[in-house]
């Protein structure tokens, strides 16, 4: 490391550490998908696989230059080769589409938390790569008729301002529940779309998990996902809008695990965290009081579910501890 280079900060170390966890996880998921991919899917998967390997190597170099121990994260022992595929019909691309959504949000946030030029540029690069792949998978899935577009609406012809105080309470001038606005529809559509993919992921994970407690936990996640889809979907139905439905990516009948229980729990935990963030955004930008109230209740359920998963990981020795700040309290004793 050049002598003029400042040491990385606590936030930069934390974000690199979390990115290393996520990237080593997705690399192994891609290995299983590539092993069973059809010809029209494999190019996208291999392209992102190569980028992921390169980015993991870059992070290894940064850790080494900074004199930091390399995280354990996930390794070849967490993926099993030569087993039947766990998901069918384009789930690999659906999964990559969802994960690049997660990555776009995370890497943009990490960019804003970076101060050293090379770290900032690294996260800018990661953001661009995830954006590009998300765009490619979006167009691929649209071309296959898999991805459900959000509902179309008539274009506004004039600017209007809210005058009725009941608008914020979710009522129209007649005292009836008002229709959702486009901001609210977009947030609900996004939440349901990603939740449906997560539900299919947990269905597959649950049928191959070796630990009974992990299996029961994932089954609980499936039921929670179903609850979220039903309750948020009802808001759309009340406005005569059909919720998005998943047309691809069902779990196969395989009972042989391609992944370790550890990686399946981490994947579930990551998506739960993303769901909490999406709920927070949905609550913040909704002007209908009943929608943030419902999302707050669901967020509580998601948080409890995520905490339970963390406890299972801790119990099994799978919860790797992030880098710690020195305990300066000991210096005063």
Please supply descriptive tags for the structure shown above:
333 residues, mainly alpha, Ferritin, 2 domains, 8 helices, 0% strand, globular
Structure summarized in a few sentences:
Helix content is 62%, strand content 0%.
Principal-axis shape equals globular
Q: Strand pairing plus helix content: what structural class? A: mainly alpha
Count of separate DSSP helical elements: 8
The helical percent reads 55-70%
- Main sheet specs: none
Number of strands: 0
Strand-residue proportion: under 5%
Low-confidence stretches: none
CATH class of the largest domain: Mainly Alpha
Question: What is the architecture of the largest domain at the second tier of CATH?
Answer: Up-down Bundle
Global Rg: 22 Å
What does this structure look like?
The protein has eight helices and no strands. The protein is mainly α. The chain folds into two domains: 134 residues, Ferritin, core subunit, four-helix bundle (Ferritin, Up-down Bundle); 149 residues, Ferritin (Up-down Bundle). Helix 1 packs antiparallel against helix 3 and helix 5 runs antiparallel to helix 6. The protein starts with 9 loop residues before the first helix and ends in an 18-residue tail after the last helix. The mean pLDDT is 89.
């Amino acid at each position: 490391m050049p002598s003029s280079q400042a040491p990385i900060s606590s936030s930069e170390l934390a974000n690199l550490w979390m990115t290393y966890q996520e990237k080593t996880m997705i690399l192994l998921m891609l290995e299983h998908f590539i092993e069973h991919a059809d010809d029209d899917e494999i190019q996208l998967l291999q392209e992102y696989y190569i980028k992921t390997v390169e980015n993991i190597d870059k992070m290894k170099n940064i850790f080494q230059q900074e004199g930091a121990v390399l995280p354990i994260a996930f390794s070849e022992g967490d993926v099993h080769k030569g087993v039947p595929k766990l998901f069918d019909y384009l789930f690999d691309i659906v999964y990559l589409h969802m994960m690049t959504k997660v990555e776009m949000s995370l890497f943009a946030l990490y960019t804003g938390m970076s101060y050293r030029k090379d770290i900032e540029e690294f996260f800018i690069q990661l953001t661009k790569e995830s954006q590009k792949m998300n765009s490619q998978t979006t167009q691929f899935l649209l071309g296959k008729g898999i991805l459900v577009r959000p509902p179309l609406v008539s274009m506004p012809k004039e600017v209007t301002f809210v005058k009725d105080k009941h608008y914020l309470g979710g009522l129209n001038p007649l005292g009836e529940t008002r229709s959702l606005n486009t901001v609210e529809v977009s947030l609900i559509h996004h939440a349901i779309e990603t939740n449906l993919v997560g539900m299919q992921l947990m269905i597959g994970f649950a049928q191959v998990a070796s630990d009974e407690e992990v299996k029961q936990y994932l089954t609980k996640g499936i039921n929670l996902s179903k609850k979220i889809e039903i309750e948020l979907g009802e808001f759309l139905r009340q406005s005569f809008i059909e919720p998005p439905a998943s047309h691809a990516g069902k779990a196969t009948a395989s009972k042989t695990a391609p992944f370790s229980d550890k990686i399946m729990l981490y994947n579930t935990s990551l998506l739960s965290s993303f769901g909490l963030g999406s709920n927070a955004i949905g609550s913040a930008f909704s002007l209908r009081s009943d929608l943030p109230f419902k999302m707050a209740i669901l967020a509580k359920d998601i948080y409890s579910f995520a905490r339970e998963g963390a406890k299972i990981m801790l119990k099994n020795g799978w919860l790797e501890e992030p880098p710690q700040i020195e305990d300066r309290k000991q210096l005063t004793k």
